[in-house]
């Protein structure tokens, strides 16, 4: 496979820090000619003589022209990010200087890296597997603590370790079954069917836990949509403002959101919450909501992952009970929250609404409890036991195929299928497992995956 990739032998260069003015700018060079190319611009000492994993300060010069005073970090392959010889040049972060240094490196024989090419090389050199490589992009894109945590876990191999382990065990079974085929005249069984059955059950459990984690993974990556609904004057906009004052998230762009439906994003304990239709709350379009019950706000609730239904503690108990029934019937995660406990009615409300969450949107009473409940709603039922969460649609799709092939193997075992047919089903399963971790991929797919990276990674 490696032989077919064009430009594989080139030495590549890219700016690894964001463009624009900064304290430092980092330029990364990787490939077989790295030491020659950078060394040619660094007259202070012969970099080729220096040991790996060392730093050197000196002037970077192209001919007589001094480009910058820099620090170069040397990493000799295979102990580098890409597995090749790598030098990172820390320059002063002036766009002009960085541009000049890049130009000089290009003149000296390097080529501009394509998006994700450093990580692609790391993958092709066996430094990372495919799930880890993809997680690198997620780690960089992570904008909250929770999304960074899942991405880091995947990048460090949490996810693929389990799958690789499963794959290895299946491979040994498949080898034993294939061996049986060689002795087909003699009617022997090398592969213990009971053990295989056990392995398949275990694998099915793991696969369904991973599949279930996808929803959570997705919400962690893209934000959890929340609809605050309730009758007019329940205090929705007051609650919104109270929440926003403390937790407004600074996010530039979140996948899958459109500006007109979602206006505000909260960051609570590292989980992003997107508030649906906050413009509607602010402009009191809530008069379209029927006097009692959930009414028109059902529509808004349909788009939401979690519904916060706010009622006024002065409301009649029967009405609130009816709302609860409607919410339960809807089958969507919800929090029913009584507001205005700071009022005279509020004092009595505790007795009237035992067990309900009662807050004051105005003075902030129990807002922290509300926030905790929101986070709990997201995290409950989360992922496989060790916190592995599937966030990637490609993995999700492959896991679905793995699940199908596992049940085919199980069926085959139940029906005492002959070894050659069983071996075929196992081969399918191995194929999909390999697709996730990258043992089996096509060049097209690799190019597609890595093209989503930023340049310099
Ligand atoms: P919305 O129609 O649901 O958005 O309700 P608003 O947020 O506009 O609030 C309606 C009225 O209730 C306003 O006069 C608010 O000041 C008041 N209000 C909101 N929350 C509270 C609260 O926690 N305590 C008290 N006493 N008044 C509140």
Task: Compose a concise summary of this entry.
The chain is α/β, with parallel strands linked by helices. It has helices at residues 34-40, 95-107, 117-124, 130-141, 145-155, 158-182, 193-222, 236-247, 278-282, 297-303, 317-330, 344-352, 367-379, 393-414, 419-437, 443-451; strands spanning 12-15, 24-30, 54-62, 65-75, 86-92, 111-112, 224-230, 262-268, 271-276, 306-312, 334-339, 357-358.
Chain-wise SSE layout:
Blueprint: E1 12-15, E2 24-30, H1 34-40, E3 54-62, E4 65-75, E5 86-92, H2 95-107, E6 111-112, H3 117-124, H4 130-141, H5 145-155, H6 158-182, H7 193-222, E7 224-230, H8 236-247, E8 262-268, E9 271-276, H9 278-282, H10 297-303, E10 306-312, H11 317-330, E11 334-339, H12 344-352, E12 357-358, H13 367-379, H14 393-414, H15 419-437, H16 443-451
Parallel strand pairs: 1-6, 7-9, 7-10, 10-11, 11-12
Antiparallel strand pairs: 1-2, 2-5, 3-4, 4-5, 8-9
Helix pairs in contact: 4-5, 6-15, 7-14, 14-15
The protein binds guanosine-5'-diphosphate.
How are the strands ordered across the major sheet?
3-4-5-2-1-6
Mean pLDDT: 79
Strand percentage: 15-25%
Using only C-alpha atoms, the radius of gyration works out to 29 Å
N-to-C SSE string, H for helix and E for strand: EEHEEEHEHHHHHEHEEHHEHEHEHHHH
Query: Which parts are unreliable, with pLDDT below 50 for 5 consecutive residues or more?
Result: 1-5, 250-262, 283-294, 381-385
- Judged by helices, strands and strand pairing, the structural class is alpha/beta
The profile of the biggest β sheet is: 6 strands, mixed
Oligomer: single chain
| Share of helix, binned | 40-55%
Through-space gap between termini: 22 Å
Structure annotation, total helices: 16
Instruction: Tell me the total number of β-strands.
Output: 12
Query: Which molecules are bound besides the chains?
Result: guanosine-5'-diphosphate
What's the overall geometry?
A: flat
